[in-house]
Amino acid sequence: MDYDKEKGITVRNYILDIVKRKLDNYLHINAETSELILQKIQRNEKERKGLQNVKKLAKEGAKKASLTNKKLRDCRIHYNSKDERRLETTLFITEGDSASGSITNSRDPNVQAVFSLRGKPYNSYGESKEIVYKNEEFNLLHNALNIDEDMDNLRYNNIVIATDADVDGMHIRMLLMTFFLQFFPDLVKSGHVYILQTPLFRVRNKKQTLYCYSEEERDDAARKLKQGVEITRFKGLGEISPDEFANFIGKDIRLDPVILNKESGIPDTLKFFMGANSPNRQEYIIGNLRYDDMG
Question: What is the pLDDT of residue 292?
């Protein structure tokens, strides 16, 4: 059947005219509904204007980041390329120059990049997305990842949080996870975020050196090496030399994937861990606390 364009336009205009008159009558009769719709439109307009400001900040931030992102030691191959090693691409997010220096000097520069934090990042819980662009460190990090618009241009397949296994290190992990979950949740949902396991102990004698990730592994290693055993407890990533670090970020790297519990929504999870619910959070931490022999 041939389509009559003029007739189609006429029918469409007829239908639009009916809908317009019916809607106009309904809104005049139902003043309360009209007011709710008007408020919704005004809120949406305000949000759109705010988003325009955010995007303007994003463009300015991207231009600045391209010139000043000295925190990033980039790699040659990226996830958004067609290179056969794209799945290996990894960004290590470290705390301080000492740890980042060790990883930088022992990494594979083809597929492994390093982003160095100053220290504890800003607590972004409850903030608007403008903080992503106004905070210099977050701005540089999200530009390094290239995830401003969507996940299609993500530059690294694996985003690895590499912090010390102490209270400060755990806090930094929480602050980074808050940032990712609040503003870029798809990064976590898609399985791109990991926590780097690093050895807690070095057990060695004159013939052999073993690296251990738990007290149990330490004790087994000491029994295996038997005599003349020297045990070193690593207090931070900066104590691990680049030569040693090469053993922990290569083919034998140990990564803990960050997995969201389907039963807990992101807002509820962030509110519990980062919101003003100190008694409940304190009770949870005490109930799940593990003692670690620091000797």
Answer: 47
Q: Which residue ranges form the domains of the chain, and what is each CATH number?
A: 1-68 (no CATH), 70-198+245-287 (3.40.50.670), 201-233 (no CATH)
3-state secondary structure of 265: coil
List C-alpha distances in Å: 99 to 104, 114, 164, 176, 232: 9, 10, 9, 17, 18
Q: What whole-number distance in Å separates Cα of residue 41 and Cα of residue 143?
A: 32
Helix residue spans in 226-293 (DSSP H): 242-245, 266-274, 278-287
The pLDDT tens digits for 195-215 are 999 889 999 999 999 999 989
Question: What global pTM score does this model have?
Answer: 0.73
β-sheet with 201-204: strand ranges across:
209-212, 201-204, 230-233
Q: Kindly report the CA angle at 65 between 75 and 169, in degrees rounded to 5? A: 70
Residue 189 · residue 260 · CB < 8 Å? yes
d(CA 21, CA 18): 5
| Both structure tokens of 144 | 């390094």
Q: What residues have CB less than 8 Å from 101, skipping those under 6 apart?
A: 238, 242
DSSP SS3 for 28:
helix
Q: 191-216 burial, b for 16+ CB within 10 Å, e for fewer?
A: ebbbbbebbbbbbbeeeeebbbeeee
Please compute the mean of the pLDDT values over residues 21-27 and round it to a whole number: 84
- Angle among Cα 60, 119, 128 to the nearest 5 degrees reads 45
Q: What are phi and psi of 204, to 5 degrees?
A: -150, 160
